[in-house]
Write a structure and sequence with these properties.
single chain, 142 residues, alpha/beta, Rossmann fold, 5-stranded parallel sheet, 6 helices, 36% helix
């Protein structure tokens, strides 16, 4: 039995990407709420709000102003209550060092943008394949 996520946090400074991802995620009907912040510093502040449960999942860009994705990951992994937070990198960076550092910081997955949300046969990193393979344990009751 599928269940919906309570909240996904998009952390990306590109407003067009954020709008596109939010629309697609809502159309896929897998989440009740999609929140958006534009850099790692805003994401840290978002997570530290009192009386707020953390999102079940974060989609994180690496290259952002003020605090980039790697800096955010380092900060968030140093806090006990966020060490198990599921974070998926969605970035235009194909640098091996970015991926390696992110993996060392305990990411759940890494995707190179742009993603294809509708044609699973053209891109193995499409959102359809992401849902099918990476989120099935989260979305399906066991």
């Amino acid at each position: 039995m599928k269940r919906k996520l309570n909240c996904i946090l998009l952390v990306d400074d590109d407003p067009d990407d954020n709008m596109f991802h939010q629309i697609i995620l809502e159309e896929m009907n897998i989440v009740d709420n999609v929140d958006i912040v534009v850099n790692g510093l805003e994401a840290i502040n978002y997570l530290k709000k009192e009386n707020q449960n953390p999102p079940e999942l974060i989609f994180l860009d690496i290259n952002m102003p003020k605090m980039n994705g790697i800096e955010f990951l380092k900060a968030v992994r140093n806090e006990k209550r966020f060490e198990d937070l599921k974070v998926f990198i969605m970035t235009t960076s194909s640098e091996f060092s970015d991926r390696s550092t992110a993996e060392e910081l305990g990411i759940s997955g890494y995707f190179i943008k742009p993603l294809s949300y509708t044609d699973n046969t053209k891109r193995t990193d499409s959102m359809d394949s992401f849902i099918q393979f990476h989120l099935r344990k989260i979305l399906n009751k066991e």
